[in-house]
């Protein structure tokens, strides 16, 4: 990280020293699989489901097969869910059906079958089951 030093001599004879540090580039992988590169973490992956992992600029991301594990039974790691999949908000334990307002859009969540969601103790949004 580069640092710049500025000095200002005042008429009183005092010297004011200010250090300004340049921000290091930030990289991330978004939850929908897209990449982010910028100078700030704020707003990274906005509109892409949030940040899945943070990286470092210039670093080669690890091989996908080395870091991914199989999702639990009845769940899906695909960004768009799939046939018969509901979106479970893991913070509120409410699941959302395909085509509804919050399907795949809450900050914390996962795709899984409706049966798996019910078995895990989740409940449907507004008490309305999908099937």
What report would you give on this structure?
With 131 residues, the chain is mostly beta strands. It has two domains: 24-68, no CATH class; 75-127, no CATH class. It is built from two helices and ten strands. It has a five-stranded mixed beta sheet. A three-stranded antiparallel beta sheet has the order 4-3-5, with no helix packed on it. The termini are far apart. The relative contact order is 0.13.
Task: Describe, in short, the structure shown.
This protein has 131 residues and is mainly beta.
| Strand order of the biggest β-sheet | 6-9-7-8-10
Q: pLDDT below 50 for ≥5 consecutive residues: which ranges? A: 1-11, 61-68
Rough outline: elongated
What is the overall number of helices? 2
- The whole-number mean of residue pLDDT values reads 74
Which SSEs are present, and which pair or pack?
Blueprint: E1 3-9, E2 15-21, E3 26-30, E4 35-38, E5 51-56, H1 64-67, E6 75-76, E7 85-89, E8 94-96, E9 109-113, H2 114-119, E10 123-124
Parallel strand pairs: 8-10
Antiparallel strand pairs: 1-2, 3-4, 3-5, 6-9, 7-8, 7-9
List keywords for this structure.
about 130 residues, mainly beta, 2 domains, five-stranded mixed β-sheet, three-stranded antiparallel β-sheet, 2 helices, disordered N terminus
């Amino acid at each position: 990280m580069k640092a710049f030093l500025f000095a200002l001599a005042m008429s009183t004879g005092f010297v004011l020293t200010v250090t300004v540090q340049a921000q290091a580039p930030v990289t991330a992988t978004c939850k929908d699989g897209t990449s982010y590169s910028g100078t700030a973490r704020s707003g990274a992956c906005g509109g892409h489901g949030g940040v899945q992992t943070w990286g470092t600029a210039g670093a080669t991301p690890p091989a996908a097969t080395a870091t991914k594990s199989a999702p639990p039974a009845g769940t899906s790691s695909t960004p768009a869910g799939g046939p018969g999949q509901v979106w479970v908000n893991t913070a509120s334990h409410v699941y959302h059906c395909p085509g509804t307002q919050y399907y795949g859009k809450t900050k914390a969540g996962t795709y899984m079958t409706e049966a798996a969601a019910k078995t895990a103790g989740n409940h449907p949004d507004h008490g309305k089951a999908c099937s």
